[in-house]
Automatic annotation (TrEMBL):
It comes from Natrinema soli. Coiled coil: none annotated. This is ABC transporter substrate-binding protein. The keyword Signal applies. Residues 87-448 form the Solute-binding protein family domain. GO terms for cellular component: periplasmic space. Keywords: Signal, Transport.
Length: 546
């Protein structure tokens, strides 16, 4: 979505006070005039590094979008706040037997426009996302469509208004968890069929409703959904505010202009710890930060010896300990330690320029070569200092004769550019969507198309290619293991398969594995009932202000 001034939701136009009142309210929230009230109401102001480029959960891969849409929409299943366990949401009960899935649905849920939620809403949502023969299929559907729902669902049928029967294309172990992913939230059928603008407006069954989208100022104002079926919200307003610089966001927290900030940078943690009325909260993350090699674009990257050489030449231990100030741990494989698919026997690549130079010479690139490194300007949890990270990589690779040009972009532009495969290499990262190893191995490193004979990479323009695989890597042995793990019910057997896949991914080095980051937040001490969620959420409808 382009940022051409303020775009106000339909509810704002319908309010008798007019849209100017909403804008004024948002502005006063920034100045601190609507801080927490003694009765637990007030305005909760959430500071983040990037604005949402859209409000359509089916048109994005961005976690910045999901932070907002998760407040407005519900999935059939949800994650427990602060936990990886799934819990009921729009579905109250479910069963999965092989390829057959049955879900019993909630009968007391309504969208914020007062329309009752039924099974038909999920069916329309599913078809909009993945069914190109559907009249209302979204041409803007993101890469999430296939790996969330489309690749696994053979058919969906409603059994009355409040029961769903889903037949899968194959046994697929993570399926119920996929239903809790942000991209699987339920949209209203009437909006889908009537041309509702999900990009710039919203209508969900969740705890909040959209009041104002102010893209020119990086603000999104939400208010309670009076039709919400669950507990909360406990605040009168929820305001998401973009403050791109870590220092600016931190200062706003310390000065009482924000209640919660995320992506707290390592250089700013001390400022929060030393200030009165605020604290640093942290928890184990389920994420990874990495550098991808676009083998579709750069011929040198197609040789695993080159990828290994670069992995040895970049001092990721220094990045984690010095650039990130120890708020992360060094990575060495795709799956983070919090998940059972992590292979504990693997170690990160050591910093070894002699080994790097030897591998380059063996591959025929002893004199080096050059490439562009695309990165983002805005801090992310898995990379709280992208500029410094890129500079470290540029310097380190210069030591072995590889010339790196840094191409830094605003986050929304970066996402579009890299999703189109225009990057040579890119700094990237991933937060888990479903707390299952499949969400890393399959989503990020399986091309979801056939591997060409005799090569372990695919052309970016291949029909059906999974653009979340920013490296265009297509190792058939790895792909076979991941596919087998998807269809295996026993968790120990799945773990063994993923451990084999991790060994291949480590040795073949389609990425430079950089870090697994902690989840770090800055929180004012008038905030209670806030749980850091490494998956789903943030569950801001439960937050209270004192």
């Amino acid at each position: 979505m382009s940022g051409n001034g303020s775009q106000v939701s339909r509810r704002s136009f319908l309010k008798s006070a007019g849209s100017a009142t909403v804008v004024a309210t948002a502005a006063s929230s920034i100045s601190g005039c609507l801080g927490g009230s003694g009765d637990g109401g007030g305005a909760l102001r959430y500071g983040r590094s990037s604005h949402s480029g859209t409000l359509d959960p089916q048109a994005t891969t961005s976690g910045e979008v999901s932070k907002v849409t998760n407040q407005i929409y519900d999935g059939l299943i949800n994650f427990e706040p602060g936990e990886a366990a799934i819990t009921e949401s729009l579905a109250t009960d479910w069963s999965m037997d092989g390829e057959e899935v049955t879900l019993e649905l909630r009968e007391d849920a309504q969208f914020d426009d007062g329309t009752d939620f039924t099974a038909d809403d999920f069916i329309a949502t599913y078809r909009r996302f993945v069914d190109e023969d559907y009249e209302h299929y979204s041409d803007d559907a993101s890469a999430y469509g296939p790996f969330t729902l489309g690749s696994w669902i053979d058919s969906v049928e409603a059994d009355g208004d409040y029961s769903l029967n889903i037949t899968l294309t194959q046994p697929y172990a993570p399926f119920l968890r996929n239903l809790a992913m942000f991209a699987a939230v339920v949209l209203p059928k009437n909006g889908i069929e009537d041309g509702f603008s999900f990009n710039s407006d919203a209508n969900g069954t969740g705890p909040f409703q959209l009041e104002e989208l102010d893209s020119s100022n990086g603000r999104i104002l939400l208010t309670p959904n009076d039709n919400y079926w669950g507990d909360g919200p406990n605040v009168e307003e929820l305001l998401f505010i973009e403050k791109g610089q870590n220092s600016t966001r931190t200062q706003a927290l310390v000065e009482g202009e924000l209640e919660i900030i995320d992506n707290l940078g390592p250089d700013n943690i001390g400022s929060v710890e030393d200030a009165d009325g605020v604290e640093v909260q942290s928890g184990q993350g389920i994420n990874i930060g990495y550098m991808s090699f676009n083998q579709s674009r750069v011929e040198e990257f197609r040789d695993p010896r080159v990828r290994q050489a670069i992995s040895y030449a970049i001092d990721t231990e220094s990045i984690v300990n010095e650039v990130y100030s120890g708020i992360a741990e060094q990575a060495g494989q795709p799956c983070p330690p919090a998940l059972f698919g992590h292979n504990d026997d693997l170690s990160p690549y050591a910093y070894d320029t002699d080994e790097a130079q030897s591998l380059l010479e063996e591959a025929g690139y002893g004199d080096g070569f050059s490439f562009d490194l695309t990165t983002f300007q805005n801090a992310r949890g898995y990379n709280p200092a992208p500029g410094s990270t890129a500079e470290t990589i540029r310097t380190d690779l210069g030591e072995i004769g590889i010339d790196v040009t840094i191409d830094d972009r605003q986050f929304s532009d970066y996402l579009t550019y890299t999703s189109e495969g225009k990057h040579d290499a890119s700094l990237a990262g991933w937060y888990t969507d479903n707390a299952d190893p499949d969400n890393f191995y399959y989503v990020l490193l399986h091309p979801q198309v056939d591997s060409p004979d005799g090569q372990d990479w695919v052309d970016w323009g291949t029909e059906g290619y999974n653009t979340s695989n920013r490296s265009a890597w297509a190792n058939q042995e790895f792909m076979d293991l991941v596919e087998e793990a998807q269809q295996t019910e026993d968790q120990e057997e799945r773990a063994d398969l993923y451990h084999e896949a991790a060994q291949i991914a480590h040795d073949e080095a389609p990425w430079v594995y950089i870090d697994y980051a902690d989840e770090i937040r800055g929180v004012r001490d008038n905030v209670s009932n806030y749980d850091i969620s490494a998956i789903g959420g943030p569950h801001l409808h439960l937050v209270e202000l004192e």
